Amino acid sequence: MLVVQVDVQVRPELVAEFLEATLANARASVREPGVVRFDVVQDLADPAHVVLVEVYRDADAPAAHKATTHYATWRDTVEAMMARPRTSVRFTPVFPAGVDGWASVAA
Asked: At 48, is the secondary structure helix, strand, or coil?
């Protein structure tokens, strides 16, 4: 398994539009076979700060995710909405250890 945390600073006047596009991407992403979980969280102190927490079955799944139409649509839609380029950090899950503990229910 692989966990990727994507940190995004959105232009404040475009937060609603960014979240709309990001939620469409997240809903499609959790239906991918390699995606275990795809969370979107928003900073309480700074609503323009959004973090995506993506949990993948294996190291190959992020590339498969980036090859999807919904990811390309999201990437192209939100690029101009960001106040700075997004950054990401890759993690190994420690707890819960198995896929079952991380699994999302598609919404």
From this structure: coil
Q: What is the pLDDT of residue 96?
A: 86
Q: Is 52 helix (H, G, I), strand (E, B) or coil?
A: strand
Task: Show Cβ contacts of residue 33 under 8 Å, excluding neighbours closer than 6 positions.
Answer: 57
* Structure tokens belonging to residue 58: 């294996």
Helix (H, G, I), strand (E, B) or coil at 86: coil
CA distances from 13 to 5, 28, 86, 89, 96 (A): 24, 25, 17, 26, 37
Task: State the 10-residue block means of pLDDT for the chain, 107 residues long.
Answer: 97 98 97 96 98 96 97 98 97 87 72
The DSSP result for 37-105, as a single string, is: EEEEEE-SS-TTEEEEEEEESSTTHHHHHHTSHHHHHHHHHHGGGBSS--EEEEE---SS-SHHHHPPP
